[in-house]
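Appendix C reproduces, verbatim, an entry submitted by the partner laboratory led by Prof. M.T., so that reviewers can inspect both the input and the predicted structure.
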Amino acid sequence: MKQTDIKEKVIEDIFTTNTGILANIISRNSNELSLVSRQKILGNRRILDMLYLYKNELLLIELKVVSFYNDIIDQVNDYYFELLELQSQSKLINTKINKIILVTDANNENKLLCKENDIELIKYDLNVVLSSYYNDFKELSTFFNITPQARGVSSLKLLKQQMIKVSQNYDFSKERVHTSKDKLSVANMLGLVDVKKIGNRNFFSLTRLGKNLLSLGDNIDDNSFNLAQYDLISEFIKENPFFSHITFSIMSVVDTIFLLSKADYPVKYDTFQDFFVRSLGKDFTWQTNQAKKLGTQHFLSYATELGFTQKIGNLLYLTPIGINALLTFQLNRSIKLINARK
């Protein structure tokens, strides 16, 4: 009997919270699989792992996180007769009971022995179960799928003149260079500009946030945002960290500095860049050092402009605004994670 450090409860938790994974292992349709009881106490204080209803039949499932051993057969048969007794007392739905044993390893001789006892013996892979649960959870968690791009703008202040052009119904089709499109794309991902595609052309308009932002400006010719305008963008990002890959990446800058600060503070930039790229899952996508450097610089620059972080030489610091935003980010992320499990 091969031993493992995995507790049965961990795998049982996965099977009972994600029916699809269990259904795949036992070759049943998950839509017709319903949990009747878990850890059901039977006679002699023995505990049945899982009892499911599948179509019009009951599935008695005994879970093991070890290789098959003969004593499991007696254990399952005892459970089976206990359930028959409950059926005779009208304490359990009166329908056919199928016996299933789940183990991490078994041979043909084991399967034949189980078949002689009318038991379905199924071998499963612990690694597959654990990975499947994480991957399903990952798919449900929106921010796991946010994919930052290395391209952007060197400074958020460059968005201002483009936004002014949008407010003046400027025809951007005249501009062929990608830099203008990059600026408008960043403005869109910060919730400042809406983009509508008609035919082969993109038409831009200011969002309510974008209009409010420009209304805070004192001088239309000023090439930079003022403090009130930066504060407005910062507040939007703090309240909407998952709005786009840019808002998420800006908050990830703050989160990364905080995590690294537990080991050393202030945080060294070189240490930050490596950890930041890995935390965004871009270690293999941003393959060149230039891409990693450019992507990191863009998002750190945005976070610094917005007052979340401060860079002095090669050292990175969190500001009071950044720490406040970090707490909100962690709360929003926790809510996202909890909702993903519902």
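The chain has a mean pLDDT of 85. Additional entries are available on request from the coordinating office.
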